[in-house]
Amino acid sequence: VGLTCAGIKGYFWNSIKMVVPAVAISTIMGALNGYVLTKWRFPGHTLVFGLMLFACFIPFQSVLLPMATILGSLGRFGMTLRNATGLSFGFGNPTVNLVFVHVVYGLGFTTLFFRNFYEAFPTELVRAAQVDGASFFQIFRRIMLPNSLPIIVVTVIYQFTNIWNDFLFASAYAGTGESMPMTVALNNVVNTSTGVVEYNVNMAAAMIAAVPTLIVYILAGRYFVRGLMAGAVKG
Fold first, then answer.
1. How far is CA 76 from CA 70, 109, 150, 207, in A?
2. Which end of the chain is more exposed for a tag (fewer CB within 10 A), N or C?
3. What are the CA-CA distances from residue 117 to residues 76, 87, 141, 231 (Å)?
4. Spans of all domains in the chain
5. Count of other CB atoms within 10 angstroms of residue 188
6. Angle at CA of residue 38, ends 63 and 110, nearest 5°
7. What letter would DSSP give residue 141?
């Protein structure tokens, strides 16, 4: 077990560095989208929500090539920017690429969760805050977010589980070597080329990979059903 921990330690932290910002960014952006689509409606907001909802049904496999093309273009732009200004754009780094991919792919789901939850939120509170002079972000930060704990927990658990357990995007965009996330490293541990199956090593690696998800469910699980019930029948 000790050798297993030492062998996958770096890949474990690669996944942590990918999952935390991806979950945080997608959750905040989903909350903002849900807030705008319910309390600051604009012409065509139904169409925008419909397109984002449609994105939830796009299979992973169909976006592999288009996303690779986009990441390549962003990587070239980042290199050009770095050569011209000395500032690093970030793209080209496998972890940054995976964060971007998971934020984009998960945005439809997070928007759906928050939109349904905010649909039932009293619009009168938002209007009263506007009358008192509160700005767009003040209402969001002081009224909407403090009352969104159940749906935030649902979104965090959903996104964390999907991103942490993802193998397809990780194997496609993370490259090889020390930049791989945990799922790819776990696959490499299990599929050894020695011809000897070390079940104890495989089990230890699988348990280590499962620990973060279990911790998230244990700490936040009591809010999960409450959040699903709050947003399940609205909108």
1. 10, 29, 41, 39
2. N
3. 39, 40, 16, 4
4. 2-232
5. 16
6. 35
7. I
pTM: 0.84
Q: Is the distance from CB of 166 to CB of 102 less than 8 angstroms?
A: yes
> Which structure tokens are listed for 207?
């348990």
Task: Give the residue among 146, 157, 148 at the shortest CA–CA distance from 219.
Answer: 157
Q: Which two tokens stand for residue 214?
A: 């279990």
97-121: string of b/e by CB count within 10 Å (b at 16+)?
Answer: bbbbbbbbbbbbbbbbbbbbbbbeb
- Displacement of CA 76 from its chain's centroid (Å): 24
> What is the tens place of the pLDDT at every residue in 168-221?
898 888 766 777 888 888 887 777 656 667 777 778 778 888 888 888 888 776
d(CA 47, CA 165): 32
Place of tokens 């945990």: 182
Please give the residue that has the higher pLDDT: either 200 or 111.
Answer: 111
Dist CA 56 CA 75 (whole Å): 26
- Rounded alpha-carbon distances, angstroms, from residue 225 to 36, 87, 161, 198, 220: 25, 45, 16, 39, 10
The whole-chain average pLDDT of the chain stands at: 82
Neighbours of 208 (CB within 10 A): 18
